[in-house]
Amino acid sequence: MNNFEILPPIHCETGTVRNILHYFGVDYSEAMIFGIGEGMDFGSPRLVKFSGIRVIACRCWQGTIMTTFFKKIGAKVYYKRYPFLNKEKAIRDMDALLEKNIPVGILTEVSSLSFIQAEQRFFFNGHSVLVIGKEGDHYLAVDNFEPRESLKTISHEEMLTTRFNLHIPPICGNIYYLKEAPKQQFDMRKTLVGSIRKVCWRMLHHPLSFEGVRAMRGMSKVVRAYRDKEFDDRDRKFFIHIYRMLEIGSGGAGYRFLYADFLDEAAAILQCDELKEAANLLRDAGSIWRVVALSSAHLATRQVDADTRRAEVDTVADHFLLAADKETEVFTKLENCMKRMSI
After folding, report:
1. Contact 198, 211 (CB under 8 A)
2. Is the pTM of this model over 0.85?
3. How far apart are CA 306 and CA 227, in angstroms?
4. In a domain, 264, yes or no
5. Containing domain of residue 63, as a range?
6. Could you tell me if 24 and 171 lie in one domain?
7. Tens-digit pLDDT profile for residues 35-53
């Protein structure tokens, strides 16, 4: 794939999908991939731990954007996992696809990728990378870490390490790819309305308390419990985890801005100005999440007196509630708009 044209990816999964499709001559924006892929979410399941700390996710489960999007546009995606002890077969299968000039999406663990600057590495399972070729024992890959417009290199040994581990979520050599461009025609209007309705249901009406706006309000209570604690290392790890998940982990709260861009694109197709209004409100929510991230970083990295710590904890907890209120407004507006939409 010497003539592979890199479209600099913004986020890992949507950027990988966009580059795969572009290679086959089909173009969608990352915003449209994220929106049709129903990626918008907020979740914080109590029992799922990330490095021993309760998980926070600002998007749906890794891999579901890709599978949902490809299904809705009628593309036949091939997705494969491997037994943990069958690492070499996973490598051989990937090599065979590359020899046929088929780009391959893989899931990796961030801290074991040497092309990422040391200060940006932390343990995170499920980072999507697009492999487009091989030179000797090194693979050529497209990735959303800077510089985004340049190919990265991954050694054979690094591939074995980064593609296999049993942490949460476990990755076992996962690959996904297309053999050809999607041929099936689909109703874009119906697809957009259905995707937006699904996200509204998830954010507003999901029966589980650790999903959607209810999860944001629940996290406010969790954070508020730290108000009168004398912080130890574990407490600081909790707040640096919030920062990482909002600013780095799998796109973080930046997906609010991406979904807002999707709503702008959808507004033109559906001829509905209310979607543009919702998009602007969602950008306001994205700004609220940035305050949560910044204040969490302060709590994790600065030594402060008790009064300052209480004020900073209150800021984080209050802004979880503000984000919940703002996103309730956004998705209620979208839900009402979609109810009036004929498909």
Report:
1. no
2. yes
3. 9
4. yes
5. 12-42+52-177
6. yes
7. 999 999 999 987 777 667 7
